Amino acid sequence: MADTGQQKPLPGAGYPALLRVMGRMSVSLSTAAQVSREEEELVQILNDCDDALVLLLNERAKALEALWKARGPEEGIPSAALSEASLERLKATNEAVGGPLPDGSIRNIFQEVSKMCSQLRHSVSYLGPPATFSHQAARTRFGVNSCYVQCDRISDIFYHVEKGTTDYGVAPVENSTEGAVTQTLDLLANSDEVVQVVAEVCLDIQHNLLSHADLHRIQRVYSHPQALAQCRQWLQTNVPGATIHSEASTARAAQIASQASAEEGIAAVSSTLASELYSIPIRAASIQDLTSNMTRFVVIRKQNPDVPDKHKTSPTGDDKTMLVLNTADRVGALHDVLNTLQNKKINLSRIESRPCKAKAWEYIFFVDMHGHREEPHIQAALEELKTHCSHIRVLGSFPFVRAATAKTA
Questions:
Q1: CA distances from 241 to 199, 222, 246 (A)
Q2: Distance CA 28, CA 297 (A)
Q3: Angle formed by the axes of helices 103-117 and 84-97, to 10°?
Q4: pTM here?
Q5: pLDDT digits (tens, 9 = 90+) for 64-102
Q6: Backbone phi and psi for residue 211, each to the nearest 5 degrees, phi listed first
Q7: Exposed (0-12), middle (13-18) or buried (19+): which is 266, by Cβ within 10 Å?
């Protein structure tokens, strides 16, 4: 909100402020030419808008709380994020208003509002410490009021979910620049059907260089291997003499850099949120090599087939199913798998191989395909795939996320 004055609002000040804002909107709609206003009046307009927003945000939070109490938790996998239908409605409203804010800004603002107002109270494990991109992905999905358990390793996320000490886990699985996060794939493959994927979150990742030292004095750069890889060219060009060091997470790297003096010349590739949380300046912003830098996270939970579960994913008409499979040990087995999917007119969004841990020089395949496991043509394909595979497992079916759920802070 704009810091435009020292006057403290009185209780209930939001209501008259809202009326004044609405009155000015009516005048502006009926006046073709822009009215010239004095600086003092412009400051009052900003203050009224801020007071009105405080009123409306609190009214929104109250309405959401009342709705939650009236109907209880919704069926399906919980989410604090706004639905695509709600975001499209806001986009249409923004276009009708014709204001200066772009649609992307409106989207980010209201996703943040939704997180803050969320009534979700789940326990969620993520790759810590606080301010990692995994943390931001978890908050995007489950809001700010859930209980978050930070983990030192991705394997710890799976451990907490498998043991039932957290309801959900959020783990990175793929980056648009550097490809798959292989540790997550291996853990999914070896979870023995205990863990299932129930949703995905896609973040628009922005990396920054954080340091107490000036740019030309930086000698060492720390970050997660994926973040370092996504900024490789920028680092080589702008800090060519610095040594590169891998850390467990971008936030852990920010912690290290925040504890170093300017003379030590230590920097971290991390987020804006980490800069704020660990009180370390941003020396360069948006240093990722590609402007379109998305990371996909999977939301996992423990599967209990013996207990009826209303929180399951049902077909939406635009879904994704994740598989892991071993092809049969014969010539043309992979071709037969792909041919089955083609004959059933099933589109693949990803196929990737990983070494099979049980036997040297054998491989397993991860397949993402369009459709839901409960749809008849997907069920038919899965049955036919069993004849071409020595092992096949559905990791999960969930709504397809086609654009960034949120932009990182």
A1: 42, 14, 16
A2: 44
A3: 130
A4: 0.71
A5: 777 666 665 555 566 666 777 787 888 888 888 777 888
A6: -170, 150
A7: buried
